[in-house]
Amino acid sequence: METLFTALDSGATVLTASRHLARHLADAYDRDRATRAGCWPGADVLPYAAWLERTWEEGLDAGAWEGEGPPMLLSATQETALWEGVVEESEAGGALLQLPAAARRAREAWGLLAAWRCRLEAHQTLLDADAEALLRWGVALRRRLARYGWLDSATLPDRLIAAFHDGRLKAPAHVVLAGFDEFDPQQEALQEALRAAGTGIEVWRPQAGPGAAVRLDRPDTAHELEAAARWVRGLLEGGAAGPIGLVVPDLAHNRAAVERVLERILRPGAGLPGAAGGHRPYHLSLGVPLAEVPVVRAALQVLALARGAVPLEEAGALLRSPFLAGHPVEAYARARLDARLRRRGVTTVSIALLRGLAMRTGEGWEPCPRLAAGLARLEARADPAPRRAAPADWARLWARRLAALGWPGGRGLDSAEYQAVEAFRDLLSTFAGLGEVTGALSAERALTHIAQLAHERVFQPAEEAPAPVRVMGLLEAAGLRFTHLWITGLHDEAWPAAPDPNPFLPVTLQRRLGMPHADAARELAYAARVTDRLLASAPRVVVSHAQRDADRELRPSPLIASLPEAAPGSLPASPVVGYARRLRDAAPEPERRIDEQAPPPADAEAVAGGSALFRDQAACPFRAFARHRLAARALEQPAPGLDPRERGTLVHRVLEEVWAGLGSQAALCAEDPAALRDRVTGVVDGVLASCAARARSGLGKRFLDLERRRLVQLLLEWLALEAQRPPFIVEAQERARRVEFGGLEVNLRPDRLDRLPDGRRVVIDYKTGEARPAAWLDERPDDPQLLLYGAALQGDAHTAPAAALVFASLKPGRLGFAGFAEEEGLLPGVGPPKGLPGAAAGDPADDWAAWLADRRRVLVRLAGAFRSGDAAVDPKRPGETCRYCELPALCRVLENEAGGAGGKDGR
């Protein structure tokens, strides 16, 4: 490093292969010179691409381009927009599903052609359809560049080479190239031009000292990352000097997993509420897309809301966002509004809907006046909006819209949030400068463009103080030196990387010219150079790989297979355990008490739930306690179209209206088939029209036509089955009845009550899902609503008893009745229960009334258990009962030592 510092002292310019290395070398130089007395000029260290741009600007200032009319050098953002415009306006562009991605790869291909000094039109015999498309796009690009006087990054080095050759540009005296594993032909030509102009050029690489490398494998990637993190902590605890390097291939993809394990091992407890943030002992070289930073994500969501309706998830995120004015005061009310939106079943939310609900009062609504006022201001700025406008005009309008909702909020921002806000404002300025390239944009295109730019821009908060641990990808480690280094992920499927030739260039041409990622041989040679460099980057190096990835067996990369395996116990590894475990181990032996008994409901405590209360108590006492006394509910997740519950409701409503018109089986049998079809079709049309008017999202005509056809066919098949029953009259539909079981009053509302000629009743519950009446027979019956009504009729001396309790199963392909009846023949396929509980298997039912009385006993016991405060986590069928329950975070059944088995013995 000292030779590099000496060159900088003498005024050399250091050009690096990456921004990360440029920052590292400049910081290292400043730290080194700070140890000496006096002052010093800043190091002239910058990435290669930035030096090209600076040299062009210096040429402008020196008048080097006056004779040719200096073109405007496009920024990377402008160049991307230009390529997207060229591709979109071409004949091939209309068929592309991912136009921005195609334009990005086309731009990369164009850069490769320039870097390898290749003219594609000279290789006509190799061109396929994609290459021919690139050739046409290139012609269109050149025309635009010439017409408007623009210069792109692919052509810039060649313009500089020509200027150095003819003396129009003053060449630097001394250039040092750092961190380059290889040079492309264009870079080599530029170096030759500089040498010819008198520049001294040298390639600097860190001096490789004697080192030792060992190899390690772990069962999977998670164990591998944990081993590396414990190694890092062990070094820190042992007082090892930095920098300690941790290299993770494809860090962009694995960033979240790496950060989680480092936080858990290096900073246990730091994420707990109230814990001080503190200084991170590690630094991740790779940032995150700016669009994923919460404060910027909120800004993009505000702009999308001002443009039109947004998905419920985005509206909910805005309601919960701390980056809008008034959030600290209205946080709870806004969260409740989010929950209400979900219960309403909406899938898209507009400003008008959100503002109306934010102003609503009464009926348990909590108004959000500050939110409503902000939405009113936003609505005023959102409509009318220009159809098309220049990017600069859109940027100004967006700034006003963000201010309308008080973005970025009233609370103080931390350092990272403040930097993200400034980065987004800088991005708006960058977008405003696209007008020369894009012209006027529609509102939708402008919003898509700014969102795309935010996803492409990487955000990395400034490092407050140098961290001893540096986490980076394979390429970012170029040119760096460490005291200790661990390289993860070097298995045979990842290193060397698989070839990935550019799809817009002929593969044969890429291989012939030796372009990056063109074939396996080149990838192997490149990976070998990088591996040798990394192994020489520290005195002590550990390389590792996972043994398996899901069901695939992994082996060490052939580039590290010859390294000796690390001896057990030879590597430092901290024994640190999770924060919860540390607290448990440090605490005295706790008092253990399983408290499954809640206080009984007070007399004034309103308990709601109807038959659902009994269903939940039978399934799991804790579920009944949580749902019907604590009112615990998971947030609903509405989806487009109709969910199974809504489809079931449609069937219920259609049958209710059809039977309201018919009234009896006799009327059904007397109806002409054509008239019956017309009746059913008319009812279905009316119900669907009502449903569409109240729908949470637009139900398209095609969808409604399919649903209409399905319902008409299903109902006609069902009515044909009902016509085969013995005579009956529909006595009531959805009639409410309040009954008492074990001191617990519940409201019952059976779907239908039929009266037989002898006065007895048949209680029917429509079921579009699975019907399992056999589950009524045990001590914890499933779906007990029919049992409740049958037992209530049986206990009412003023009402005729129920002769049958049945589900009307309306599942397509499985139509029929499922349940129990006092005798055979009352309904097709339904008979008495096979035996009373406790009776010998296979014995006939002793008596229907006795069976109903026994079921009443079970229901009274369930009511009594609920009233007594029974809240045991005791799922009836642990695997099935808990599978779709929304309460595991509350009951913590999955945390028991039996691995989630649940039940009284497994808690």
Describe the structure in your own words.
There is one protein chain. This protein is of the alpha/beta class. The chain contains 32 helices and 27 strands. Helix 9 (221-237) packs across helix 10 (251-266), helix 16 runs antiparallel to helix 17 and helix 17 (415-432) crosses helix 19. The longest helix has 22 residues, at 673-694. The chain is elongated and about 115 Å long. It starts with a helix and ends in a 16-residue tail after the last helix. The model is unreliable at 836-845 and 897-907 (pLDDT under 50).
The separation of the N and C termini measures 61 Å
What characterizes the major β-sheet?
6 strands, parallel
Count, helices: 32
- Name the shape in a single word: elongated
Strand content: 5-15%
Structural class: alpha/beta
Report the radius of gyration as a whole number of Å.
37 Å
Indicate the percent of residues in helices.
Answer: 40-55%
Total strands: 27
Query: Quick check: average pLDDT?
Result: 87
Strand order of the largest sheet: 7-18-17-8-16-9
The overall number of domains is 6
Give the uncertain stretches in residue-range form: 836-845, 897-907
